[in-house]
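Final report, Chapter 2: Outcomes

The project's central promise was a pipeline that accepts a single protein chain and returns its three-dimensional structure in a standardized token representation, suitable for archiving and comparison. That pipeline is now operational. To close this chapter, we reproduce one record exactly as it appears in the project archive, with the input sequence first and the structure output second.
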Amino acid sequence: LSRNGFAGIAAALNARHLRPTSVEITLNGHHTPLRGRFRGIDDTGRLRISTAEGFNRTFAAHDVSLLRELG
């Protein structure tokens, strides 16, 4: 961590998830889940999600109450 910061961890995790995965994400304080494609994490640890509407969004871990892979 001291050399590359979190970016090194993010790169290693993203290398294991080369194919986008369909997911459902529930945010704290929201009842309606958001569906999209998991695109990995960014250099700060935020989840990268592409929505069906074509938006690329990021979410901090403390904002997410549930991340579920869809089959």
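Archive annotation: The chain has a mean pLDDT of 88.
This record, like all others produced under the grant, will remain available to the consortium after the project formally closes.
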